[in-house]
UniProtKB/TrEMBL annotation:
CDD domains assigned: PKCI_related (cd01276)
Gene3D superfamilies xrefs: HIT-like
GO molecular function: catalytic activity
Motif range (Histidine triad motif): 97-101
PROSITE patterns referenced in this protein's UniProt entry, alphabetically: HIT_1, HIT_2
Source taxon at top rank: Bacteria
Active site per the UniProt annotation: H99 (tele-amp-histidine intermediate)
Annotated transmembrane regions: none
HIT domain sequence ranges: 4-114
UniProt xrefs under SUPFAM superfamilies: HIT-like
Organism: Paenibacillus montaniterrae
Record InterPro entries: Histidine_triad_CS (IPR019808), Histidine_triad_HIT (IPR001310), HIT-like (IPR011146), HIT-like_sf (IPR036265)
Protein name: Histidine triad nucleotide-binding protein
Length: 114
């Protein structure tokens, strides 16, 4: 399958890993939009939020658990952070493998840029 994030999971495209377990991988975003910008993805290829099913409950729970773990480990849990999923064209999705942006390290401002 020609999917950038599946290739990152396989290791055929390099990434800077932050966290990994059986279900999820977290790595540094290549074009950070904040001092901390980490992508958290399921190891299973799921194209968009619309394609998540109840069979994926554990993987989705593990994405949220990874976000909490990273926030605590990197020490921004109390200061705060934002976890974002972009879905399809209007949502601004560019890579069609489900991912959550974990953003932190400064006051993130308004939810929407425009
Ligand atoms: P989205 O617009 O929600 O689909 O976000 C895709 C994200 O993937 C963007 O923030 C990109 O900077 C990021 N990205 C694209 N290619 C890579 C890569 N090779 N390694 C890490 N992050 C990437
Ligand atoms: Zn994929």
């Amino acid at each position: 399958m020609d999917c950038l994030f599946c290739k990152i999971i396989e290791g055929s495209i390099p990434s800077t890993k932050v966290y990994e377990n059986e279900h999820v991988l977290a790595f540094q975003d290549i074009a950070p939009a904040a001092p901390t910008h980490i992508l958290i993805i399921p190891k299973k290829h799921i194209a968009t939020m619309n394609d998540v099913t109840r069979e994926d409950d554990l993987a989705i729970a593990e994405i949220f658990a990874a976000a909490r773990h990273i926030a605590k480990e990197q020490g921004f849990d109390e200061a705060g952070y934002r976890l974002i999923n972009n879905c399809n064209s209007d949502g601004g999705q560019v890579v069609y493998h489900l991912h959550f942006h974990l953003l932190a390290g400064k006051k993130l401002g308004a939810l929407l840029a425009e």
